[in-house]
Amino acid sequence: MTDCIFCKIINKEIPSYPVYEDEEVYAFLDMTQTTKGHTLLVPKKHVTDIFEYDAQLAETVFSRVPKIAKAMEKAFPEMAGLNVVNNNREVAYQSVFHSHVHLLPRYSKQDDFKMTFADNSAMYPPEEMTKIADAINEQVN
């Protein structure tokens, strides 16, 4: 894809700070550095988001996450944790439409990354939870 910033980074048309590369994926530092070491892992094949993955691409991309995470842990012994985030589509905060996985090292609860989940459990009694689970289960191939 000619207008994709990540494709340009993968093709070395735009400089980056590489962390890992093989034939199928490229990992590089996110320019925002939300926390020290914030890394993006991208498939070299242009796909917009997770909805365009097949099983092989998912295995390829997500199997690299532990490898990079362990390298980050060794590089930054002060790292206390790690968030792995994959945003898909604009409503889910995807801002670059080439699929990517964020690896965000965490050093303390007071660092610059926040992630919260609302507790809407009161809105979903057991019967509704069953309906939701069944609807998804019926579509899994």
From TrEMBL:
Residues 5-115 form the HIT domain. A motif (Histidine triad motif) lies at residues 98-102. GO terms for biological process: nucleotide metabolic process. SUPFAM superfamilies: HIT-like (SSF54197). One of its GO terms (molecular function) is catalytic activity. It comes from the Bacteria. This is HIT family protein. It comes from Vagococcus acidifermentans.
